[in-house]
Amino acid sequence: MEQFEKLGLCEHVLKTISAKKFKKPSEVQEKAIPLILEGKDVIAGSATGSGKTLAFSSGIVKYTEKGTGVRGLILTPTRELAEQVAGAMSELSYYKGLEVVPIYGGMSMNNQIKKLTYADVVVATPGRLLDHLQRNSVNLSKVKFLVLDEADRMWDMGFKDDVAKIVKACPKDRQTLLFSATINSELEDFSEKHMKNPVEVSVESYVDASKLKQIYYDVRDDEKFSLLVHLLNNEKAHLVMIFCNTRRNTDFVAKNLNDAGISAQAIHGGMEQNKRSRIMKGFDDSRVNVLVCTDVAGRGLDISGVSHVYNYDLPLDAKDYIHRIGRTARAGAEGIAINILASRDYNNFMNIQKNNENLFIERVMTPQFKKIYVKFDSPRRPRGNFSGRNESRGGNFPRKNVGHGRTHRNSSRNRH
């Protein structure tokens, strides 16, 4: 506790930290909290799970008085992150009694309008907050703290213009905090326009590269699912995340895993928010062991205990690969990222290697496995997945050398 006290945190936050038995501040907390409490604008390069919520909450909780209007505004790219940040902020501000209101799509607008009348802190996705601004159901004229969480993801998702409109609705005399896994030219342009002499803070990757093993299997197009089932049945895994590139493939993989006797849940942006929240709660509580997801779950969710990350589809964006594998090997724990490649993944895989030169992804010999017969919900099948034949096949086959013999090693310089 002494290390947290030295950072200047208020007694209300310190009580929560003591109750949650946090041992010591994370790197981003040590570097950012003193600056935030001094009133500085801060740009922090920090990944999910690094403790940034406590960092940007420190000033909001310390300097916000209950019942004085919306003083803190936190923008997030996804509904799940908005819900998670709001929950964490509610805990951190519990002893001060602040009302923290999450605002995102998929939930009752009228219910949100009612809650906004007494909100002290709002955690929102840009699109839904703009809806409220247009309805005049939220007043941002008293905002003293504006936080952009996972800013790079918001820009990737096309929220740049929405964020600009929201910023204009906030007072110019405010403190702005920008947290992002990566800082690109567009975010630098934003900081020049909307931030006051920001102090930049960078931290090492929260993922321990020495404890993260990355491997890939190279299989035929009709063998992906069969190998996945074999690996899941033979690995000693705690919590498993399996990433797919599309909603269709996510549902497809989850359904067929259940048919193969492996309990799995799918989550993607096409689901109702209540269902997505229930699934994530079950996974976080370890009631769900295998989660099949699109990248909506790859960013912004701080889930502890993920031992295995599978890339069933290799992402097009090299940055998404880093964020996916960042779900494991956290806080001193070991983890493994497993990539299952077929012909359609080669270009994406080479792009990932090209844009992340510090990676070392080891090719592993494909084990013997039983071919699994899969079911499709419609005549149209996921592109390039399976032949639909029920047969056994195993071992390695003459394949294209995907990595072209390149070897890249992990380094602490690899930030995400």
Features:
416 residues, alpha/beta, Rossmann fold, 2 domains, seven-stranded parallel sheet, 15 helices, 14 strands, disordered C terminus
CATH topology of the largest domain: Rossmann fold
Strand portion, in percent?
15-25%
Strands across the major sheet, in which order? 3-4-2-5-6-1-7
CATH superfamily of the largest domain: P-loop containing nucleotide triphosphate hydrolases
- The CATH class assignment of the largest domain is Alpha Beta
Q: What structural category do the secondary elements indicate? A: alpha/beta
Shape: globular
CATH architecture of the largest domain: 3-Layer(aba) Sandwich
- In round numbers, the mean pLDDT is 85
Low-confidence stretches: 379-401, 403-416
Distance between the termini: 28 Å
Biggest sheet layout: 7 strands, parallel
Q: SSE string, helix = H, strand = E?
A: HHHEHEHEHEHEHHEHEEHEHEHEEHEHE
- Helical content stands at 25-40%
- Rg computed from alpha carbons, rounded to a whole number of angstroms: 22 Å
The overall strand count is 14
- How many domains make up the coordinates? 2
